[in-house]
Design a protein that fits this description.
Blueprint (H helix, E strand, L loop, with lengths): L21 H7 L10 H14 L10 H12 L5 H7 L9
Helix pairs in contact: 2-4, 3-4
Length: about 100
């Protein structure tokens, strides 16, 4: 295969399931394939398998973390997924 300087753009959904089908990924995470499409997909991308499987259920975040995460999302233009990964936030709805 010829090497090029062009950056390879992964196909839609690539990387989320690491080469497995949605059914295969759902089987690995022990959930229904339809459930795997929505928020679980988003959660897996931001926090990995531990976030999906409920590693630290019921986490609370201090005020500074919430403000910094909100500022990065609103003022700095980061996506919710990027903010969640940066601050190790396990859920979209932060308490």
């Amino acid at each position: 295969m010829k090497e090029t300087l062009r950056r390879r753009v992964p196909a839609r959904g690539a990387g989320t399931h690491q080469g497995r089908s949605r059914r295969g990924h759902a089987r690995q995470t022990a959930c229904h394939a339809q459930t795997d499409r929505g928020k679980m997909d988003h959660t897996y991308r931001s926090g990995g398998e531990e976030a999906v499987m409920g590693g630290n259920g019921g986490r609370r975040y201090d005020w500074e973390t919430k403000v910094a995460a909100a500022r990065d999302h609103v003022e700095n233009g980061m996506t919710k997924t990027e903010v969640m990964a940066r601050y190790a936030i396990a859920s979209v709805s932060v308490q």
